[in-house]
Specification:
Low-confidence stretches of chain A: none
Number of strands of chain A: 9
CATH architecture of the largest domain in chain A: 3-Layer(aba) Sandwich
Structural class of chain A: alpha+beta
Oligomer: homodimer
Distance between the termini of chain A: 56 Å
Order of helices and strands of chain A: HHHHEEHHEHEEEHEHEE
Helix content of chain A: 40-55%
CATH class of the largest domain in chain A: Alpha Beta
Number of helices of chain A: 9
Chain lengths: 291, 291
DNA sequence: TCATTTATCTGACCTTAGTCAGACAACATG
DNA sequence: CATGTTGTCTGACTAAGGTCAGATAAATGA
């Protein structure tokens, strides 16, 4: 009777099964079987290549073909041969199809906000959901190059500043720190990488270059819910690869003793501690790595 | 692109849908359609009345009847008329049925532990799952009378002591407090109530009586993941009802300023602050309520 | 007692999902 | 250009889930 881990997990599984089932049956309200609705949603979400949709939904080619035809008859989509390879086909939603897709999206959104509205502490609930989602699908986090001024990048940077403000004894004010201007973190001078889980950013790292052979690694941050999956290491590896690609010979970075997990990572991965190389008020540890 | 609440919720929904689907298809490995497996599981979990199973699984009476028959032919269960009402039927698993049920349970357990094993911080993950499960199914928390020496009660009490130790400035040692002996919290002198969510305890409260007209409310605790759903209020209401049932005229309780949410609840629900009525070292606020 | 309600069972029927073999056209390659 | 491969389509088929209209038997209430 003691609430051991497995019983707790299974209570969770029962609760979400009921919720997922309710969402599926709300889709049926639009007079279309679930399979067809899933195809509309896959195309609406940007998957146009028929083979790609088939792989994503795990459908047999015969079934897929029939579903496409029934949706075509309904006037929700059109198909045409792929311009590069006339054996393949691409599907595109018609205007009516777009409307149906929006209707499905609205149903999902409405369910989501109804549920969040009845949660007493919704931010805590969302963090819990993030953690669950990342643990279940943790191996599907992709690393992508992005503009540091993009919305996703700014979200990560704000979170990074907020965390520094909480963790540094001195607090943190980005205006007092030497905040790299965006151009220094865009090719050809540098770059900026995001870790993306299912479309949402969960981590970032910047490479600030000045055109010369030395560049600085900046703004390494991982969403708390995504920690423990080796994502920091993957981001650092990716930023090193990008630096080599940009013909950088030496990388530097600075950090603070209040971030012990970062210090440990740098020490574990071949970074060598060096003397202070800037007059930024916040860092107290400085590292270098030759590529 | 900013990860707003709805997108985060939907990432969560996608991740758990995949997990739930994988569990369902693992059930298919036992050579039986999902519908039949669900019936076996419902009966194994203690639902014997056919109408009750039908309501729980949302099945049509015709379909239910056929599923029962096919399982009966397989030798997994027997049905017989209900002793009180011969129109109703009750189903019971045979020995072979029990074995099949155990096999399904083992599959679920194995999935659960495999998943927990790959989580970097499994206790944190479990707390997140608790919060999600309780928010999704929060309206299904039942309040039941239990023995304070039962395993579920002891789990709650340990959690309660642990929380006091963390929150009171002085720490908390149950041996120094006037811990009521169990008999005082068992009928006819008192009672002990548990809040049960899907079989797992998430809260408790005790009523310590001495046979006279005055009794004390003790050990009010709610699992952190279950806070915010008005459960404390429900438990207090239930304990007041139980006290009336035991012919108690006056209730008392003591608490500590470090537990402001409890103080606020008592003040909101008709409790009147009174002078200290014991020499327990931990409490610093004392309340009374006439029934 | 008799009509009504309730719970299950039965047979007929339908939709959805999914499999499989073969057809066909477009590509790829020697 | 002949050959094999790839991606889609078609038709035939099956299993599973689900609906509906009685049939039956037991319980209930006037």
């Amino acid at each position: 009777m003691r609430p051991d881990s497995i019983a707790r997990f299974r209570r969770f599984a029962r609760a979400v099964t009921a919720e997922v089932g309710a969402l599926d049956s709300s889709f049926l309200g639009r007079g279309r079987p679930l399979g067809a609705a899933r195809v509309v949603n896959a195309i609406g979400a940007g998957r146009t290549d028929v083979a790609e949709i088939r792989a994503y939904l795990g459908l047999d080619s015969g079934l897929m073909s029939r579903l496409l035809r029934s949706l075509e008859e309904e006037g929700l989509l059109t198909t045409e041969p792929h311009p590069d390879d006339a054996r393949r086909r691409v599907a595109r939603l018609t205007e009516a199809g777009q409307r149906e897709y929006s209707a499905y999206e609205d149903l999902s959104d409405a369910r989501a906000s109804a549920l969040l509205a009845r949660a007493p502490r919704s931010e805590e609930l969302l963090r819990a959901m993030d953690l669950v989602a990342l643990t279940l699908g943790g191996d599907r986090i992709a690393i992508e190059e992005a503009d540091p001024r993009s919305e996703a990048a700014r979200f990560c940077l704000e979170a990074y500043y907020g965390e520094l403000a909480r963790r540094l004894e001195t607090g943190f004010d980005v205006k007092l720190s030497c905040d790299p201007e965006a151009e220094a973190m865009v090719r050809p001078r540098g770059t900026f990488l995001l870790a993306i889980a299912d479309g949402l950013p969960v981590g970032c790292v910047g490479l600030k270059g000045g055109g010369g052979p030395v560049a600085e690694v900046k703004r390494l941050w991982i969403d708390p819910a995504a920690r423990g999956f080796g994502l920091a290491r993957r981001l650092m590896q990716a930023v090193e690869d990008a630096a080599r690609d940009l013909s950088i010979a030496v990388l530097r970075l600075d950090t603070n003793i209040a971030l012990p997990e970062a210090l440990a990572l740098y020490r574990r991965t071949g970074w060598v501690e060096i003397a202070r190389f800037n007059d930024d008020p916040y860092p107290d540890h400085f590292f270098e790595k030759a590529l």
